[in-house]
UniProtKB/TrEMBL annotation:
<dbReference type="InterPro" id="IPR011701">
    <property type="entry name" value="MFS"/>
</dbReference>
<dbReference type="InterPro" id="IPR020846">
    <property type="entry name" value="MFS_dom"/>
</dbReference>
<feature type="transmembrane region" description="Helical">
    <location>
        <begin position="47"/>
        <end position="69"/>
    </location>
</feature>
<dbReference type="GO" id="GO:0022857">
    <property type="term" value="F:transmembrane transporter activity"/>
</dbReference>
<feature type="transmembrane region" description="Helical">
    <location>
        <begin position="163"/>
        <end position="184"/>
    </location>
</feature>
<keyword id="KW-0813">Transport</keyword>
<feature type="transmembrane region" description="Helical">
    <location>
        <begin position="324"/>
        <end position="344"/>
    </location>
</feature>
<dbReference type="InterPro" id="IPR036259">
    <property type="entry name" value="MFS_trans_sf"/>
</dbReference>
<feature type="transmembrane region" description="Helical">
    <location>
        <begin position="397"/>
        <end position="414"/>
    </location>
</feature>
<keyword id="KW-1133">Transmembrane helix</keyword>
<feature type="transmembrane region" description="Helical">
    <location>
        <begin position="136"/>
        <end position="157"/>
    </location>
</feature>
<feature type="transmembrane region" description="Helical">
    <location>
        <begin position="76"/>
        <end position="95"/>
    </location>
</feature>
<feature type="transmembrane region" description="Helical">
    <location>
        <begin position="420"/>
        <end position="442"/>
    </location>
</feature>
<feature type="transmembrane region" description="Helical">
    <location>
        <begin position="224"/>
        <end position="241"/>
    </location>
</feature>
<dbReference type="GO" id="GO:0005886">
    <property type="term" value="C:plasma membrane"/>
</dbReference>
<keyword id="KW-0472">Membrane</keyword>
<feature type="domain" description="Major facilitator superfamily (MFS) profile">
    <location>
        <begin position="11"/>
        <end position="446"/>
    </location>
</feature>
Amino acid sequence: MFKNIRQLTPFSLVLLSISFIMSISQSTMTTTYPILMKSFNVDTTTVQWLTTGFMVAMTLVMPLSPWLLDNIKLKQLLNGIVAVFLVGTVIAMITPNFTGIIIGRLLEGVAVGALFPTFQSVIIENTPKDNRGVTMGVVGLVMGSALAVGPIISGIILQWVSWRALFALFLIVLLILAIFLQKYIENTHILKPSRFDWFSAVTLLGFGGILYSISILPSTTINWRWWSIIIISVLLLIIFITRQIKLRVPFLDLQVFKYAGYTPAMLLTGLSYSGLIIATVLLPLFYQRIFNFSPLVSGLLMVPAAIFLSQLNPRAGQMLNKIGLKKLVYIGMGMMILGYLLLSTVGAKFWIAALIAAMLLEGGNAFIMMPAVTAANNALPKDLVSHGTAIVTTMRQFIGATSVVVASILITAFDTRFNFTVALTLTSQCFIIVPIVGIILINRIKGK
């Protein structure tokens, strides 16, 4: 792993370091829900906005990343993204009310949404095609590990200090990184200035509307308001797509879908991300609700899976050029199937089985997500990489968020009819369909 990291340029390491810290913020807040609900006297529906708002903000900004890359010097863009994140973190850390935390999280989501496609596009652009597998394996290590260790870090901090210490940790570490790594930031992306299309930007609200509607499903009834948001959001997306096709310089160049292999590879990244994020949702519930472990122990039990993922990501990148994407996906999807089977059979009886299932689910992600991202971008010419990456990251976020909502709905429905243990095992069983769809999908990609 460290050998692969040493092969990266100092600038790539800067991008990865900053991305790692900001990525952790995605998955840390769920552990704070009970504490925040008690501190601010808010209900479950309200506190979930810390995650829902974050995801919506991310999704709204991701499609703008190609324009940002083409019109703002990379050093200024990266510093601006970090500044937005730091401002949001400070607001969330010092606020006396819950609204302030929501505002802070929205700003953090905006920053992360701009960073993810930007840093991946820049790294891909500056890496020869033959080396992209290994490089994106390291990128996968950063993104996957950050998502996996988020609950671990929050569990440890909340065991001894206030929830505000979580934001303080992000603030201090990211500020130190931003200051001391300035000399390594390079303006490697060639600017292609164009006018900012405000109309397209407004129609992007359709992405946020759909994601918001999906996110609130577990805690709301499907009424005329919900349908109104969905219909308006879909119409906005249709307008956005139509406009991008007509514009000479679009926000998102949809020509990427004309290149063979791009679409299936893009969908595979979303399916693999689903397995990773569902592991971080289901496993803490298994540990805390079935085996009665404390949040700290529950977090520590996620460590083996995080380590396993971090070890496999660079190796999967190396294997991409040797055995091809298809065999890697077969391995990864096979591991995910085994993981869900374990959870749905003996996962509720033996905690060690749940731990192994977590390792299989997260480890399987290593063989799919970043190799698929690499394959998707290798299918594109260099000038479309930023557009292809923006679409991949947006769809990955959408599929991941949808998976969490589906899991919540299934758990609630099964718990009402049976009991919580049965609810978790049956939900795990239902998600076996995800890797099966992935196996079907990979057969639509030509080549090895």
